[in-house]
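QA checklist item 7 of 12: single-chain prediction sanity check.
[x] sequence parsed
[x] length recorded as 204
[x] structure emitted
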Amino acid sequence: MKPKELFGVPIQKKGSYHDTEAKKSYADQEQVNEGFNTLKERFMLINNWKSYCGEGFADFKLFDSEGKMVERFPLIGDYIRIDIPGPGTVEAKGYDWVEITDLFEEQTHGICLNFMMMTCRPSKNPQNKTSEHIVHFYSDHATSTFAIFKGRDFIEAGIYGRNETPNMDSEFIDKARNFLIAAGGMIGISKIQWKTLVDGFLDF
């Protein structure tokens, strides 16, 4: 199966990929509008993502461009600190980091009336001013695009991973860890986590 080609989602060129989605249907447009407004708020409150998914899921925290934790909606140039279950990076004291490189909302016609997308890319630790190492189990070629959609009778959440390859630009002790986690993701373990998140977005 080929990866979906969606506006706003980077093109798949190498490594692994995934398309992880969940949909919720409604009887009328008013319910759709109310549901999408709730979904949008849940989507934008990154610090709350873990609460939708329960124990055993990664914890996400939003940081500004200077590396300070913030309680607000995300902006391009912000960072997300990820605390995944299991061993974390040695270099970043147990965390993985991504940078928000794209964030937009569009209104369109046809089956999809409104959608929002946020693309993240593995990044350095913004709190470490002396290192430019990518602190994530994937290389900076990889992207994760988080998206929500509103149709005429449905709302939908999706996560689209592209160009997922292990990060070898790291401290020696982290290279083996990154390879093992990336390999696990490539055979579907990370997709289970992402499926939990998209289902959690819609569980209200």
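[x] summary fact logged: DSSP finds four helices and seven strands in the chain.
[ ] second reviewer sign-off
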